[in-house]
Amino acid sequence: MLFFNKMKGEKKSPPMVSLSEITWSWVGAFLGIAPVAYLNYTLFYGDDLVFIIGSFGASAVLIYGAITSPLAQPRNLVGGHVLSAIVGVIAYKLFYPFPWFASAFAVATAIALMHATKTLHPPGGATALIAVIGSEKIHALGFLYVFIPVGVGAIIMLTVALIVNNIAKSRKYPVFWF
Questions:
Q1: How far apart are CA 36 and CA 31, in angstroms?
Q2: Tens digit of each residue's pLDDT (9 = 90 or more) over 112-158
Q3: Cβ 99 vs Cβ 63: under 8 Å
Q4: Would you say 134 and 72 are in contact if contact means Cβ atoms under 8 Å apart?
Q5: Model confidence pTM above 0.85
């Protein structure tokens, strides 16, 4: 019974955010994803490189919509993605004949490593998983995946976050760097 009592929840849901906050989150997400997507679909279209990955969408939620969260800070954004990308590539290279195992190993190890380095960024789990379950285009990148799309994409999104999140007087980003 105690086990199920833990699942009741203890607090009410958070209050609604203001229209201004919603607007700034939208503007940030649009301007953060746009250059990464633009590079992917123009400069690198038809090339072997990929410039956008699904986990960037989840990062956008954090760095433009939940800017005070510890999970949204620059250390977490960049460190979480880069470390997870390294783990994902290694997991794929070691365990590719067993994709179910490589997938589980990549995500679990990425989480552990992000915890150990204080870089926990939930989209990092997806970044590690994409390295394993991604297309042949992703697999062909090997360790380049860590730099392009992951590292450069995270830096582009961080740059936009630093600009957009500090335009409004009601917002301040980051809360911490390291």
A1: 9
A2: 999 999 999 999 999 999 999 999 999 999 999 999 999 999 999 99
A3: no
A4: no
A5: yes
